[in-house]
Amino acid sequence: MVIDFDIVVAADRKRGIGKEGRLPWHLPGDLKYFRKLTSTTKTGSYQNAVIMGRKTWESIPLKHRPLNDRLNVVLTKDADYKVPNGVLKVASLDDALELLQDFPVETCFVIGGGQIYDLCLRDYRLRKVYLTEVDAEFDCDTFLPDYERAFEEIFQSQPHNENGLSYKFRILRKKKEGDPDAS
């Protein structure tokens, strides 16, 4: 069985997603949306998985690690890297998706970072991108690659305003093969 996955990401106008391993903005409404999206399931006997790179894992404050009510998976090539009990550690996205077939997982969400997003945006198993689009520009050092031509928007929220910033939630679906704009 092939497990597919979705991406959850917040980005500024220039597709910036981070600065020195941290989010360059603080939007509690976005964090609440992220938690609800990645932890809510339709079936009580299932849970969702969040797949992240080691740097993303380390950027989560200790008091919030692992992310509650989700199966946490950390990607790292370092075989000696230590993760807490209950957190899965694998060397690649393929390993993560293969391992998750053994768990009662409803939806897999990839939550960062930049290198992982770059890999995932080109993967045939990617279904959707849940994008929080921050209407500002920040001095980021990590960016999403250009991806939008291969996706079509299926939802856009009204703008939200918080901490002097405007942002909206968008959901993008991968275009079907054969669509002339899908490349």
| CATH overall fold name | Dihydrofolate Reductase, subunit A
Low confidence ranges: none
Major sheet attributes: 9 strands, mixed
Bin the strand percentage: 25-35%
Compact description:
The protein has one domain (5-174): Dihydrofolate Reductase, subunit A (3-Layer(aba) Sandwich), CATH 3.40.430. It contains four helices and eleven strands, in the order E-E-H-E-H-E-E-H-E-H-E-E-E-E-E. The chain has helices at residues 28-39, 54-59, 93-100, 114-121, and strands at residues 5-11, 16-18, 47-53, 70-75, 88-90, 105-110, 126-134, 142-143, 151-156, 160-162, 165-174.
Describe the structure.
- This protein has helices at residues 28-39, 54-59, 93-100, 114-121, and strands at residues 5-11, 16-18, 47-53, 70-75, 88-90, 105-110, 126-134, 142-143, 151-156, 160-162, 165-174.
- With 183 residues, it is α/β, with parallel strands linked by helices.
- The chain has a single domain, classed as Dihydrofolate Reductase, subunit A (3-Layer(aba) Sandwich), CATH 3.40.430.10.
- Strands 1, 3, 4, 5, 6, 7, 9, 10 and 11 form a 9-stranded mixed beta sheet that branches. Strands 2-8 form a two-stranded antiparallel sheet.
- β10 (160-162) and β11 (165-174) form a beta hairpin.
- The longest helix is centred in the first third of the chain and has 12 residues, at 28-39.
- The two termini are 26 Å apart.
